[in-house]
Design a protein that fits this description.
By secondary structure, this protein is of the alpha+beta class. It contains nine helices and 14 strands. A hairpin with a 2-residue loop joins strand 3 and strand 4. Helix 4 runs antiparallel to helix 5.
Length: about 450
């Protein structure tokens, strides 16, 4: 049986594509959560930082002597509510540092309103987030601009974002795992109709060439139509093959039989020795050709029938008895004693009658053909466990040193039977039938001279 070479697997390809999509969606989910979380944490920190800056700005008081700066405790408590970040501030009055860190960066353009301006900066080796506001304060009847900047390190923000990132990573991994399971299940579900169709066709017997009438998805319609078309063409080809074999058997055997009969009539009527010698040669060639043609046709019929078997239950012991009786005239012409032994109970098998008849005829014909004159051919039937065993033994020339592997090949004959008419197809036919039914064929030399052929096949 030939093996199908697979270039790729649709299920694996579909699963891989779904997994790639799932991985992309999981990555997009992770990126989206990370981006939203980062923006949300930064926005929250900015609002708290801005509120703290405004609370400081609102506590500024002007007077005749200057500005009273009172930094409320609530400003730093708000900033400390998120964690242990470092806080820096800078207050400038009319461009002059009033309090705080002189090197804390201010915005490029000094703010003039209480709407906080946020920006990132670096201070004392820390990455900080800065909120800056501007305000005007009356001092001695004059308006004095004041800039308040408050900065906070980002460690708490980074810690919160890292925690949310880990959760997003776990969520993405869980989403991918769930999507992978769904991808495998979806691939199986999509291909299930294909597997069911293949199983339905596989379960058919070799002789079942009916069109496939199974309900399939719309996408499998062209495949089923193509399969039914192939089955129809195959059925037609097999029918034509069977017809050709039958017609060939008739048109080949009939002329050869007529030629042989006419040659025998001429042989009996002829008195010239040279003519009689030529006629005997013609008869021998006609017999050889008829046997070869018959064996070739039998072999073609066996090849066809092994794929188109019509198995039926039959009594093997009765079938062998009928065939043995049919060979008795041939055995008597060669002075060969033909014996048959069978068990008392019926031996039932389920097989194609034509194939089994062909096997038994070939085994008995070979035994008689290669037996010595005044010899014997013993045919026996027995059962061993679940097998029926047919044994045919002769007192002829034996196997000529060849094994079954050689004699079972087509057109292969032993070197000690070159003078006997034969085609070398008999044992090849028996071997093919044995393989078709899961049986065996064994050939051995018989003790005392001759050969034994043992053919087995399952009981019904």
């Amino acid at each position: 049986m030939s093996r199908t070479h697979h270039s790729f697997s649709i299920r694996r390809r579909l699963t891989a594509q779904l997994l790639v999509v799932a991985a992309a969606l999981a990555g997009l989910l992770f990126y989206s959560i990370r981006t939203v979380a980062d923006a949300a944490v930064e926005q929250t920190q900015d609002r708290i930082l801005g509120a703290a800056t405004l609370s400081i700005a609102e506590e500024l008081r002007g007077g005749t002597d200057g500005i009273d700066i009172d930094i409320p405790y609530s400003a730093f408590s708000m900033l400390g509510a998120l964690g242990n970040d470092r806080i820096f501030y800078r207050i400038e009055v009319n461009g002059t540092l009033a309090t705080g860190y002189a090197d804390l960066p201010l915005p490029a353009v000094a703010p003039t309103g209480l709407d906080p301006e946020f920006y990132d900066a670096s201070h004392l080796g820390y990455a900080v987030r800065v909120a800056a506001v501007g305000r005007s304060v009356l001092v001695a009847g004059k308006t004095v601009p004041v800039v308040i900047a408050v900065a906070q390190t980002r460690s708490v923000q980074e810690s919160i974002v890292a925690g949310l990132t880990n959760r997003a990573l776990l969520l993405g991994a869980g989403f991918f795992a769930l999507a992978a399971l769904l991808a495998v299940a979806m691939a199986r579900s999509v291909l299930q109709p294909v597997n069911e169709l293949a199983g339905a066709v596989t379960r058919r017997g070799p002789q079942d060439l009916r069109p496939v009438r199974r309900q399939v998805p719309e996408e499998l319609g062209p495949l089923v139509n193509a399969l039914n078309g192939f089955i129809g063409r195959l059925s037609g080809a097999l029918s034509r093959t069977e017809t050709f074999i039958a017609e060939a058997a008739h048109y080949i055997r009939t002329p050869l039989a007529t030629l042989r009969a006419q040659s025998e009539i001429a042989l009996r009527q002829s008195e010239d020795e040279e003519t009689r010698r030529q006629l005997r040669k013609i008869i021998r060639l006609a017999d050889n050709t008829a046997r070869s043609a018959s064996q070739l046709l039998d072999h073609a019929a066996v090849i066809y029938r092994t794929d188109q078997r019509s198995d039926e239950e039959m009594a093997l012991d009765r079938l062998i008895a009928d065939i043995v009786e049919g060979f008795r005239p041939s055995a008597e012409l060669r002075d060969v004693d033909l014996h048959y032994a069978a068990p008392p109970e019926a031996v039932m098998i389920a097989a194609d009658r034509l194939l089994i008849e062909t096997v038994i005829r070939n085994l008995i014909d070979n035994a008689i053909k290669y037996s010595d004159e005044l010899g014997e051919v013993c045919v026996s039937l027995a059962t061993e466990e679940s097998m029926a065993l047919i044994t045919v033994c002769d007192r002829g020339r034996g196997l000529g040193g060849l094994e079954l592997d050689a004699l079972g090949q087509r057109f292969e004959r032993g070197g000690n039977v070159a003078d006997v008419v034969g085609s070398g197809l008999g044992l090849a036919i028996v071997t093919e039938v044995a393989e078709a039914y899961g049986g065996t064929l064994d050939l051995t030399d018989r003790i005392g001279g001759g050969a034994c052929a043992r053919f087995s096949l399952p009981l019904a």
